[in-house]
Amino acid sequence: MTTQPILTLDNITNRFGSSVIHENLHLEVNSGEILGLVGGSGAGKSVLLRTAIGLNKPAAGSINLAAKQIGVLFQHGALFSSMTVVENVALPLFEHTSLSRARALQLASLKLALVGLDKVAGARYPAELSGGMIKRAALARALIREPDMLFLDEPTAGLDPISAAAFDQLILTLSKALGLTVVLVTHDLDTLHAICDRIAVLSNKRIIAIDSLANVANHNDEWIQSYFHGPRGRAIIDKPLRVQHSGFTSEN
Ligand SMILES: Nc1ncnc2c1ncn2[C@@H]1O[C@H](COP(=O)(O)OP(=O)(O)OP(=O)(O)O)[C@@H](O)[C@H]1O
Question: What is the ipTM of this complex?
Fold first, then answer.
């Protein structure tokens, strides 16, 4: 991994009316890393992600995004119910390229295969898929334009622990195989532990810590202490990582 920032947010201020969400916030994302962004509910994680990708214009500050192409998985990034899964995945190609429909659908099938969905799943409508399969299809759609950077908003939300672990591993495998930089917003401590190179903590309108999980967890901040050393956090920090594929716990 290089330490070249692929994304720099500098002195960012965001406000809605009189409510200040971010103030003089600074964040750098290194090329090739998986960065987990955590913070309390309403801290402004999603707004920060939208700011980074240009969907929210900050009141002040600068954004330097060096990625050539980005892919985004939104928190409620539902697929269109009236289109098949493969059509949903191909949609960005229909909209943004001059590829033929047949070629776009062929590329979409390849992306579906990459995330573990076969042609049968591709021919279904979203309502006919499980939650985990929908996440995979949405990930395939985020990957369809060959991004070098992915933004994922709560990728494992709503998944059972085994499906969530499998989805974590998929993100990890794809990011390493494709050389992707990943920024993911999550509340899922397992995800932080299993796949994130660094953790950024958003609190009090700023990034108050950014480091490895072990170092961030030692930070002397009240929210960090309660998040990482509360009952759920302790279980992750203090215990060995489960073996993700099987869902079993390993002592290794
Ligand atoms: N378009 C908007 N207009 C007004 N207020 C907004 C808008 N978008 C977000 N907010 C407010 O900004 C704050 C931060 O919202 P955001 O969704 O970024 O939080 P979050 O950290 O992602 O929360 P959660 O973990 O619960 O998803 C909230 O108080 C929210 O109500």
Answer: 0.96
Which residues of the chain form beta strands (DSSP E)? 5-16, 19-30, 34-38, 60-65, 70-73, 149-153, 181-185, 198-203, 206-211
User: What's the gap in Å between 16 CA and the centre of ligand 1?
Assistant: 9
**Is the C-beta atom of 80 inside 6 A of ligand 1?**
no
Best probe residue, ligand 1, of 45, 55, 76, 207 (max atoms within 8 Å of C-beta): 45
**pLDDT digit string, tens, across residues 20-44:** 999 999 999 999 999 999 999 999 9
> Which residues, at least 6 apart from 204, have a Cβ–Cβ distance to it below 8 Å?
none
37 CB near ligand 1 (under 6 Å): no
Q: Which residue has 């985990």 as its token pair?
A: 132
How far apart are alpha carbons 198 and 79 in whole angstroms? 30
Cα of 204 to ligand 1 centre, how many Å?
14
Q: How many residues does the chain have?
A: 252
C-alpha 56: how far from chain center = 18
